[in-house]
Amino acid sequence: MKDYIVRGIAAEGQIRCFAITARELTEEARKRHKTSPVMTAALGRLLSGGAMMGAMMKGEKDLLTLQIQCSGPAKGLTVTADALGHVKGYAVNPVVSLPASPAGKLDVGKALDLGILTVIKDIGLKEPYSGQVQLVSGEIAEDLTYYFAASEQTPSSVALGVLMNKNNTVAQAGGYIIQLMPDTPEEIIGKLESRLKETEPVTALFSKGRTPETMLQEILDGFGLVLSKERMPASFSCNCSKERVKKALISLGSAQLEEIIRDKEPIEMNCHFCNTNYHFTWEELRQIKNSLKA
C-alpha cells in the first residue's frame, strides 16, 4: 500500500480527523539515515505526525517544522513538511540502542527523555508562527497532543506508531489525529473519549489490515463520519540539489571560499534531511569563487 493521508469531519463538523499510512516513507528515512530500531520508531512517529499537520495547512507554499531538543541519547529530531504530503527529517543521533520498555516495546520515551518540542509554521506572513512546549512523555504522540491543547487550544487525540520487522525494516507505520472544534457538546466529547479508550494501538490496527479510512470509520462509528474523496499521497521527499548546495557555498563569500580551496582538495557537503552527499572538485570550487568577481 502506497503512503497517503485521508481527512474527514464528523459530528456535523464538530470533529475533524486525519489519518496516515506511512510505512514506505518511514522505511525510506530508515535507509537514508541508517537509524537503529528505536530511532526509526521515533523518527517515523514524528514524520507521520508532521505529514498530517502539514496537511492541515492551506497554502501550497506553507511549511511546517517540528523540532525536538532533548536530554536523552537521541539528542534531537527535526521534521519538515509541506501542505502537499511531502515530509523529510533526521535525528541528531540516528543510532541509539536501549533495552525494551517495561511493556516490551521500543523505548522512544527513554531515547528522548526530557526536552522541548517546537512547532514552526511558515505561512507567508512576515514572521513564522512558533509554539513551544515541554515534552510530557517523549513518546511523541502524547507530546503533540499536549502541544495542540497548550499552544493552539485545540483538544486533540494523536496516535502514532511504528512496528519493526525482525530484520529491522519497517513493517507498519502511521497514525491519526482527531480534533474537537470549539463549543463541541459534552455528550460528544464523552462519547469520543470512551471510544478512544477502547481503540487498539495504531500498529495493531494496521497489522489487522486496517487502512487510514477504516481506522477512522471504526473509531468514529456513530459520529456521522464523512471522509474526503481524495487521498493525499505522502512521501519522504527532500528538495535539496547540487545547485542549492552551490548557492549555499556562494553565500559564504569570497574570503571563506578562499580558505576552503587553499588546500586544493575536493570537499563533500551533506544534506542533514536526506543524508545525500554532494561532491565538489577543487576546480568547481575555484569556478564558484571566480563567479563572485563577475
What's the end-to-end separation, in Å?
52 Å
Oligomer: single chain
- Major sheet attributes: 6 strands, antiparallel
Structural class: alpha+beta
Query: Which geometry do the CA atoms define?
Result: globular
> Percent of residues in helical segments?
25-40%
What key attributes describe this structure?
294 residues, alpha+beta, six-stranded antiparallel beta sheet, six-stranded mixed beta sheet, 10 helices, 14 strands, globular
Task: Describe the model.
With 294 residues, this protein is of the alpha+beta class. Helices cover 34% and strands 28% of the residues. The chain contains ten helices and 14 strands. The protein has helices spanning 23-33, 37-55, 108-112, 141-151, 186-198, 202-207, 212-219, 242-250, 254-261, 282-291, and strands at 4-10, 15-21, 63-70, 76-82, 86-91, 115-122, 129-134, 156-164, 170-180, 226-227, 232-233, 235-236, 267-270, 277-280. The strands form three sheets. Strands 1, 2, 8, 9, 10 and 11 form a six-stranded antiparallel β-sheet that branches. Strands 7-6-3-4-5-12 form a six-stranded mixed β-sheet, with helices on one face. A two-stranded antiparallel sheet has the order 13-14. Strand 3 and strand 4 form a beta hairpin. Helix 1 crosses helix 2 (37-55). The termini are far apart. The model has no long low-confidence stretch (mean pLDDT 94).
SSE blueprint:
Elements: E1 4-10, E2 15-21, H1 23-33, H2 37-55, E3 63-70, E4 76-82, E5 86-91, H3 108-112, E6 115-122, E7 129-134, H4 141-151, E8 156-164, E9 170-180, H5 186-198, H6 202-207, H7 212-219, E10 226-227, E11 232-233, E12 235-236, H8 242-250, H9 254-261, E13 267-270, E14 277-280, H10 282-291
Parallel strand pairs: 5-12
Antiparallel strand pairs: 1-2, 1-10, 1-11, 2-9, 3-4, 3-6, 4-5, 6-7, 8-9, 13-14
Helix pairs in contact: 1-2, 9-10
